[in-house]
Structure formats: C-alpha cells, structure tokens
C-alpha cells in the first residue's frame, strides 16, 4: 500500500513536470525550453562575475576615458569569443567636465569647502587619481555667483510652496537642497524657476550616512566627505546628447549651439558632502524648518537666509567626447528579423562597481552561457542582441543615440527590450510594460532565491505581505501574483519604451544591500564584495531571471504579451486619476472655506512670518466620456484576444507569423507622434517620467500633469488624444482577433 502511494507520487510528480506549461509555448516545445533553462541555471558562474567586476572597476571608466574604451574592447572580445557578431557603435556627444570648482562661506566665520573624497587604505581603488572625475554635477551652468543662502529641503515644488507660506523667498539667493525626494536635476530646475541664482546639493546623514548605519569603511554608509556626483541635465524634456535631439550624434552630425540647448541647467549647481554642508547650515537664520525637513546633522535646521553670503564659482570644459556601445548579436534560426534585446550600461562615475557593473557582469554571464548552449545545439529561434551602453550616467547618451540612429529598424524588429542597471542582495524588482506582467510572474516562479531556497516570486510575495498595512494585507493574502511597477526614467529602457513604444522592462534585485556609496569614489570592488552582494549570489539570480526571460521571448511559439492585463492597468490608472481630480476639488473647497472663515488669520504666527494662503481657483469637471467609451471597447476585445490565444496552436505558420508581428508591435500604437506637451520626445501616452519628478513615473502623463498644473484645457485636450490613441491600439487588437476568424 505504502509502495503504491510512493510510486503514484513519483509518477504524478514526473507527469506534472513533463507537462509543465509555459505561456506562449506549444506542448511539443515546452519540454525542450525547460531543459535549456535547467542547463542555463547549472552553467552560470559566480567566479566569472567576480573576475569581470574586479577588472572592469579597476579604474575610472567614464565617457572619453582610456579605461572606458579599454572596458568596451574587453567586453567586445569576450562576446566574440562566445559566438556573437559584435561591433563597437561609436557616437560623439557633449560631455562637460570641471575646469574650476570653488565654494566658500564668507563673513566672520569663513569656510572653504574641501570638495574632495579622501583615499582609504581599506579601499584599494579610492586613491587612483588618474582620470578620476571630481565631485560635480554634469550639465550645470558655468557661473560665479555670490548671495545669501536659503535651505529648501528636497528642493521640489511643494517645498517652495511651504517656504512661501513661511514668507521666505529664494529670489536672488543660492539654495541648499538635500539629495532625495526627486531626481537631482529637478532641484536646480525648480530653484531657477523661483529666481535662485545658484544651487548646492548635499547628502544628509539621515538618508545614507551615520544615522542609517556605520559609515564606510566600517559599514556601507556614506562617510562625512562622501559625495554623490550625477547629471542635472533636464532629461524629463529629452535624454541623450543635448546637441542632437531626436537623431544620432555621429561625428559629423549637425549640432545645436550650447546657447540654444534647453536641457542644460540655467544656474550653477554643485554637489557637496555633509561635512562641507555643516558650516553652511550653521550659518542659516530665519524660521526653524518644519519637522519633516530636518536632517541628521547636530544642529537646529533653519530656512535662512544666511547671516553671511556664499560664493559659488564653477567653470566647465564643454567637450565633444567619443562613446562606445558594445552591440553583440546571435542570429535566430527561425525569425532572424525579430530581435530580443538585453542591455546594461558600462560607464560609471569613477569605479562604478555596484552602479552599473554588478548588472553588467550578470548580463555578460547570461550571454556566455547562452553562447555555450548554442554550441550544444540550443540556438535561439529569434535573434538575441546583448548591449553594453556607454554614457548612461550623464544622460542615457549611448542607448539614446543608438536608438535614435536605428529607430525605424528597431520598431520593425524589436520584440522586447530587457534592461538592468546595478544589482545587490534582496528582492526581485521589475518595472515595465504591463503586457509582460504575467510573463514575468511565470519566470519569477521558476528562479530560486539564493538565500531562502524558495522562488524569487515567493520571497517577493513574503516581503510585500510583511510590509503591507492591514487593509492591503487582506487584499493580497494568498495571492502570490506580482504586480510590476510603471517605469519613469533613470536608465536605458527610456528610449526604447517611451520614445519608440517597444515593450520593455527593468529587472534587478535589491533591498538588502543598502549603502551610501552611490556615485561616489567608494562605489568600488572592495565595497561591493563586502556589503552589496558577497559571493555574487544575487548576480547569479539576476542572470537566471534575465537569461530565462531572454530565452523564452526568443523561443516562444506565440509571443507572451497579455494586453488584457495592460488594459485593466490603464483602467486602474484612469480611476485613480478621477479620484485625484475629485480630491483636488474637495481640498480647494475646504481651503477656500477656511480662508473665508478667517481660520488661518487666527492661527497665524507673526514670528514665523506666516503668509496667508490665496483663494484657490475652482476645479472644473472634465469630460472623460471619450476615454471611457474607448476603454469599454478595449476591455472587450483584449479579453477576447486573451481567450483566443489559447487556441493559437491551430493556426498555420503564415497566420501565426502575422499574429506575432501584431503582438509585439501593438504597444507602439500607444504612442502619440507629437508627444507630450512641452516635451515631444516622450511619445508614450501611458508612461513617462514626471516633468517635476524626473525618475518618478507619471501614468497617463498628459492628462495627469495638466490636472496637477491646473491647466484644465490641456487636461481636456489630452483626454481626447488618449481616447484616440486607445482606439488605434484597439484596432490592432481587433486585427489580431480577425486572424482567428
């Protein structure tokens, strides 16, 4: 009896495995795919990633550096060795570097900022000075300005509203902002809009210094003189070479003159350490800041203005530099003109071990193993393209220029683009096109978490459940389904996704490798292997996740896009947008009632210089009927298509090829050729970076930002544009349905 039960259990387990389904694969091909993935997992090596990271991060490797070119050549040679047709795609881009930097506090307690990160004996590469980039913000304006200082918290629009209520103006002043709360480029942009003449950004120890944990080298967090470099180019308008908007920056390209470039900051901007920030903060007078503005330094935070003036003097070399993208292709056996593209950037702010090389070496290991599988006969059905982008850090330069240079071909051929950008211990995170959400749930269920032994999907679910509030817990309890996030900006998926409408995703692990090394000279091999991912266990998890995703997209019989999920997600965004509008209306009515009842007058504090709020304009009703009608049709047709796809095995080869072509090009119908208001480069009507958030996403961005800016006519116009866009998308869905009829 017991033997019979065990035999039944073994047989049923074997049967379950042999019949395991993968979305998009006919049963005859699923077993071969699973065998390939099993071999992929077994062949991935941590030691390769360790070796490559140590070499690639052994010196500064930014645009135009000798090490940057050497790294590109090194990777290209490896890709060729693994069986890929490989080229270096060269572009020439504007990349400013510092010529002169000075920051001084004047008055009776003068202080001259150090503006330098000291070498550490525990960090072998921190003392390399040859070609090391100093602490600066790329695409700052040149300038020599002297003025009083004002503290603006994170420097986002809401902070200036608070300053106005407190009666503090930044006009003609230099502002001091904390990193965080938005992308760094938003801080000088908003400061200039409010009349500031200079901007200083510092890392507060509350965020990533000694308040968070032990500082480097004892722990992973930012030491007192650590500085976050980074670009401040206005990338929410357009990324890429600012001199060639919309087209590839070849050596002979026609270029905008610097005075005609709208994405370079209008005021000088400089990042500093919290050690250099302390004397500046101590000089501030004026009101004590709100509680949420306070940091971790040992002082009382004031808004300013400062008792003494500050002088900020910056000059830059505005040079055109060469960059080198590594492009490696493995031609598909069945569909060579359908491409599945994988990318990670290789340039860094100096050593760049965590950002970006930890993701780059995982991608390299995926490519190596897939090359080895191809030699064993497991060649991909679609063409695989592995890319190592240069110039991501300043402004997504390498990827954007390549995409703009090959736009028509990419829209015709690219099935999907999968991106990563650094990696560390922790939990799987995926953002991207929601048509790929179910696909990534299946992939994540088949990858083991190296720390717990359960799937990375199961561990992600546990984290989500553990950190949810009570009402959210009730909704997700028992459901191991992973919602992927919407993508704003911040990495090389942007030109593929938001400019060309190619289904894209950003993949990485993190959450247990926190630190303060970001964009500092201490983002090194020594720091990474001690604190971020010792043993490259999560580099291996990334290689398994992304490698498996690449192979499934390359080999699928029916491409695994679920446009019903995307449609339902758009519907959720629309409902959320209506709630935002209703909340704005309710808040304005309440605020105006308090003003009319003179409540604010009774609560005013003359010591703080409290300014009375102004009467808010009436929030009108917007007509969403055109979008609602489009959504009703789209929901019906995407649900029908989802059902029809389950019978795709009965289609002949010609119809199946037509169906797949429609599936991977469908998301391009969510583009509007004229783009978003004031930034036509961003064409996707569902996802975009926020004009005032930078990295942060704005879903249904045309309507949402019209509402946020109280531009009601624009919001109404964009509702109509979205409705028309959704109808074009629906036409493609109906055409795909017609194949089954």
CATH architecture of the domain at 104-318, by name, is: 3-Layer(bba) Sandwich
Q: How much helicity do the residues have?
A: 40-55%
How many helices in DSSP terms?
24
Query: Termini, distance in Å?
Result: 52 Å
How many strand segments?
17
Low-confidence stretches: 1-19
Radius of gyration: 27 Å
Sketch the major β-sheet.
9 strands, mixed
Morphology: globular
The CATH first-level class of the domain at 104-318 comes to Alpha Beta
The CATH topology of the domain at 104-318 is what? Glucose Oxidase, domain 1
Averaged pLDDT, please? 94
- Oligomerization category of the chains in this entry: single chain
Query: How does the helix and strand content classify structurally?
Result: alpha/beta
What is the strand content? 15-25%
Question: What tags apply to this protein structure?
Answer:
741 residues, alpha/beta, Glucose Oxidase, domain 1, Transcription Elongation Factor S-II, Chain A, 9-stranded mixed β-sheet, 4-stranded parallel β-sheet, 41% helix, 16% strand, globular
How would you describe this structure to a colleague?
This protein has 741 residues and is of the alpha/beta class. Among the domains are: 104-318, 3-Layer(bba) Sandwich (Glucose Oxidase, domain 1); 563-740, Transcription Elongation Factor S-II, Chain A (Up-down Bundle), CATH 1.20.930. Helix content is 41%, strand content 16%. Helix 11 (397-405) crosses helix 16 (493-499), helix 21 runs parallel beside helix 24 and helix 22 (653-665) packs antiparallel against helix 24 (712-740). The radius of gyration is 27 Å and the shape is globular.
């Amino acid at each position: 009896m017991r033997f019979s039960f065990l035999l039944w259990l073994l047989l049923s387990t074997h049967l379950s495995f042999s019949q395991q389904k993968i979305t998009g694969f006919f049963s005859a091909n699923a077993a071969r795919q699973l065998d390939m993935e099993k071999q992929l997992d077994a062949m991935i090596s941590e030691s390769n990633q360790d070796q490559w990271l140590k070499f690639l991060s052994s010196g500064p490797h930014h645009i135009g550096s000798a090490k940057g070119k050497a790294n590109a050549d090194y990777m290209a040679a490896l890709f060729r060795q693994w069986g890929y047709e490989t080229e270096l795609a060269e572009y020439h881009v504007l990349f400013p570097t510092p010529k002169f930097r000075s920051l001084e506090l004047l008055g009776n307690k003068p202080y001259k900022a150090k503006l330098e990160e000291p070498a550490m004996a525990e960090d072998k590469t921190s003392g390399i000075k040859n070609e090391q980039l100093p602490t600066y913000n790329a695409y700052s304006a040149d300038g020599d300005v002297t003025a009083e200082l004002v503290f603006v918290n994170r420097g986002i629009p809401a902070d200036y509203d608070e300053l106005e209520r407190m009666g503090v103006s930044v006009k003609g002043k230099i502002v001091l902002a904390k990193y965080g709360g938005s992308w760094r480029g938003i801080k000088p942009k908003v400061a200039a809009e409010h009349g500031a003449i200079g901007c200083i950004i510092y890392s507060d120890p509350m965020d990533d210094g000694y308040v968070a944990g032990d500082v480097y080298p004892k722990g992973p967090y930012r030491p007192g003189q650590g500085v976050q470099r980074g670009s401040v180019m206005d990338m929410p308008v357009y990324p890429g070479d600012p001199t060639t908007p919309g087209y590839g920056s070849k050596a002979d390209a026609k270029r905008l003159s610097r005075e005609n470039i709208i994405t370079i900051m209008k005021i000088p901007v400089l990042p500093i350490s919290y050690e250099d920030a302390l004397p500046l903060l101590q000089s501030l007078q004026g009101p004590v800041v709100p509680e949420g503005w306070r940091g971790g330094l040992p002082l009382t935070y004031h808004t300013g203005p400062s008792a003494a003036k500050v002088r900020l003097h910056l000059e830059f070399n505005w040079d055109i530099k060469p960059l080198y993208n590594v492009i490696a292709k493995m031609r598909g056996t069945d569909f060579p003109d359908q491409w599945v593209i994988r990318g990670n950037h290789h340039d860094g702010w100096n050593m760049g071990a965590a950002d970006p090389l930890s993701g780059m070496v995982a991608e390299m290991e995926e490519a190596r193993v897939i090359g080895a599988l191809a030699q064993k006969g497991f060649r991909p059905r679609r063409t695989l393209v592995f890319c190592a982008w240069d110039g991501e850090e300043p402004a997504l330069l390498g990827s954007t220029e390549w995409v703009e240079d090959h736009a028509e071909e990419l829209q015709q051929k690219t099935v999907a683009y999968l991106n990563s950008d650094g990696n560390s211990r922790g939990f799987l995170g995926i953002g991207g096109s929601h048509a790929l959400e179910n696909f990534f749930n299946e992939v994540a269920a088949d990858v083991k978490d190296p720390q717990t032994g359960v799937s990375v999907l199961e561990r992600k679910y546990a984290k989500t459940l553990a950190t949810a509030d009570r009402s959210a817990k009730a909704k997700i309890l028992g459901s191991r389904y992973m919602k992927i996030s919407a993508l704003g900006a911040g990495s090389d998926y942007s030109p593929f996704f938001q400019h060309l409408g190619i289904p894209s995703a950003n993949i990485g692990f993190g959450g247990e490798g926190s630190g303060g090394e970001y964009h500092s000279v201490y983002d090194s091999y020594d720091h990474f292997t001690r604190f971020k991912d010792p043993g490259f266990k999560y580099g291996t998890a990334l290689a398994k996740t992304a490698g498996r995703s690449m192979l499934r997209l390359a080999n699928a019989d029916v491409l695994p896009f679920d446009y019903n999920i995307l449609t339902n997600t758009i519907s959720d965004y629309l409902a959320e947008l209506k709630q935002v509008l209703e909340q704005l209306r309710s808040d304005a009515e309440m605020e105006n009632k308090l003003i009319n009842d003179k409540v604010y007058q009774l609560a005013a504090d003359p010591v703080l210089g409290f300014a009375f709020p102004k009467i808010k304009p009436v929030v009108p009703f917007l007509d969403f009927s055109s979008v609602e009608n489009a959504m009703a049709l789209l929901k019906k047709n995407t649900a029908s298509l989802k059902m029809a796809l389950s019978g795709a095995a009965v289609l002949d080869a010609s119809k199946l090829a037509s169906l797949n072509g429609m599936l991977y090009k469908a998301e391009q119908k969510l583009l509007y050729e004229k783009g978003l208001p004031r930034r036509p480069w961003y064409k996707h009507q569902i996802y975009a970076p926020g004009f005032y958030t930078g990295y942060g996403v704005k879903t249904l961005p045309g309507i949402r930002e019209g509402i946020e800016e109280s531009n009601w006519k624009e919001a109404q116009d964009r509702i109509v544009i979205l409705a028309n866009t959704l109808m074009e998308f629906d036409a493609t869905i109906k055409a795909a349905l017609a194949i089954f009829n």
